[in-house]
Write a structure and sequence with these properties.
Length: about 220
């Protein structure tokens, strides 16, 4: 099962990808997570990416396409994958098509998380991430059992640098300008499946399960 999760910042792509990974055993490939790890490790790619991420802008296409191409060639992706946050531009979608065709593979579903922008600010300002395992929480909608501590591994929870109000607004503008056009791109290819991402985490999970089961 090869899936793409498409949606604005805070729509719940990472939360749901994590659940599908646990349920179906296919890896979650989050370009955002890979880039944040490169930033934390101060690799040359991370140093280059940091200024774009801090400003809420997209990292250049060639950088993220290279990341995904390398990651998709890993052994654990043979059973399938969830692309979480990639592609984000038409150029990235074209590059993905070429790389999958070259490997004799294809996307089964592009799941579009439909959500009103007005709820996203609250979701993102309340988000907390685990420094050790990367799991996401929300102070209200998905709180950890103990404040500031990851339920899964006991790691320290922190707030992402780009989850500040100003940066969130910029990220939403960038989504509208550069990523939202991918909906018609994938609709034209008959791959787009829209889900209501405004509901609870459990109801969104059910909608995704139904799509996966419909194959
Ligand atoms: P990335 O890390 O991909 O961020 P994003 O797309 O902006 O998405 P988010 O992680 O913010 O949101 P999400 O949809 O995963 O929501 P989540 O599940 O966490 O990218 C970061 C940056 O990296 C980009 O700005 C860019 O600079 C760069 N980058 C990454 N990929 C790139 C690419 N392909 N090209 C170029 N640059 C790239 O949920 C959010 C919160 O809401 C959580 O607290 C969660 O608990 C809560 N929540 C989730 N679902 C629900 C629900 N149903 N109800 C209530 N609360 C919920």
């Amino acid at each position: 099962m090869n899936l793409v999760f498409l949606g604005p910042p805070g729509a719940g792509k990472g939360t749901q990808a994590n659940l599908v990974t646990k349920q179906c055993g296919i890896p979650q490939i989050s370009t955002g997570d890979i880039l944040r790890s490169a930033v934390a490790n101060q690799t040359p790619m991370g140093v280059k990416a940091k200024r774009y991420m801090d400003d809420g802008l997209l990292v250049p296409d060639d950088v993220v396409v290279g990341i995904v191409e390398e990651r998709l060639s890993s052994d654990d992706c043979v059973v399938g994958f969830i692309l979480d946050g990639f592609p984000r531009t038409v150029a990235q979608a074209d590059a993905l098509k070429v790389m999958l065709q070259g490997a004799g593979r294809s996307i089964e579903h592009v799941i579009s998380f439909e959500v009103d922008h007005s709820v996203l600010l609250g979701r993102l300002t309340g988000r907390r991430m685990c420094r050790s395992c990367g799991r996401g929480f929300h102070v209200v909608f998905d709180p950890p059992a103990e404040t500031g501590v990851c339920d899964g591994c006991g790691g320290e929870l922190y707030q992402r640098e780009d989850d500040r109000e100003e940066t969130i607004r910029r990220r939403l503008e960038v989504y509208d300008e550069q990523t939202a056009p991918l909906k018609s791109y994938y609709e034209a290819a008959s791959l787009l499946r829209k889900i209501d991402a405004l509901g609870t985490i459990e109801s969104v999970q059910l909608a995704i399960q139904n799509i996966i089961a419909s194959r």
